[in-house]
Amino acid sequence: MPYQSPISPGRSWYEDTAGERPDYPRLDGDRSCDVVIVGGGFTGLSAAVHLARTGADVVLMESHRFGDGASGRNGGQLNTGQRAWPEEMEAEYGFTRAKALFDVAEEAKAHLLEFSRINGIDIEYMPGQLSVAHKRRYVDSYKAHAGIMAERFGYPHISFMDAKETAERVGSQRFFGGVRDTGTGHIHPLRLVIGTARVAAASGAHLYENTPATGIASNGGKVRVTTSSGTVTAGKCLIATNAYGGWLEPVSAAHIMPIGSFIGATVPLGAGSPVIPGGESVDDSRFVVRYFRKSKDGRLLFGGREIYGVTDPGDIHIHIRRQIAEIYPDLKDVEITHGWGGYVGITMPRQPFVREVMPNVISAGGYSGHGVMLSNFVGKLYADTMAGNREKLKLFEELRVPAFPGGRKLRAPLLFLALNWYALRDRI
């Protein structure tokens, strides 16, 4: 019987097309190491690779299987820069810091593609991204953005699209304009997870699946991570659970909120389909973003239904098909072969949360839907800190990321109300 993740609803198209997905053992007994990593997604696995390659003794533990969380189930879009546009970051932090944050994100993109290439990981990279305006009043901002990216931030790969070009490239009359980014693209995320785990193990990292951490304590210069089957004692610890580890320690839980996001995969649309003929990924201007792309075999992979409570929708297919039909009316009856979901970690300003949460323990997460390239690179930057180079990681540590209001009991209801208000604004 096909494996079903116990923490994420539905079986993804990625799981059925990723190839061999090796099993790793469960931790059995106590052990010590230099660095213990909690969480086996992009951040944790990347950190394990780069730490092990420096000769560090690394233990990584994952509660379920690598890729069961957002890293193996997301939309696969790399994007460019941080979640906020560089000009928005400049307004908040000034040009120097905004440019540094943009440059580190570009370095992250290049690193991901190079890491995959040199390690023989077929991530099914496809170039191009279209960011489109679902309201006419947003078009001028997109046009200005293209100019700012080239002239102020040295990124010449973005060009403005008017309504006609947008309709041709998306294959829909639903949008009013946007930008085309030829300097980025989209990938098969679970292939990257599987490949990075393979490289980590080959580099000497000790990887454990089905090993949930039950507690983390730091005292006397040592960090102890407890599990039901043993305790790992280390000099340093990286918490890389993102949306899935809110019970482990209170600081991350106060700053990172899990929200559910859902994706559907259609049958292959055929060579003559007008849907995204150039093969780019697409994201729109909604606060509750809709994101979609075509796979290499011509399926439409469409994501966009977010939830902010704890209840998963009973039938993902129905909700996704309804949203597809809003953009592509001819696909209102399209067969959806896969529907799946998972939880994304977001922060109040939609900027990553990277912080030392107790002595010798750094937590990293809250990539807010922009994590495919950023999370992998943050893992590498964490490894760099072990070698005494913390300069680039500090760019993320110094971001102003406040805690969610309302404490543990009220933050979810408050966020639910706020984000549903934004979802209503998206429609009017």
TrEMBL record:
Keywords per UniProt: Oxidoreductase
Descriptive protein name: Oxidoreductase
Domain FAD dependent oxidoreductase, first and last residues per copy: 34-384
InterPro entries: FAD-dep_OxRdtase, FAD/NAD-bd_sf
Source superkingdom: Bacteria
Keyword 4Fe-4S on entry: no
Any one GO CC term of the record: cytoplasm
Top-level taxonomy: Bacteria, Pseudomonadati, Pseudomonadota, Alphaproteobacteria, Hyphomicrobiales
Pfam family, one: DAO
Organism: Aquamicrobium defluvii
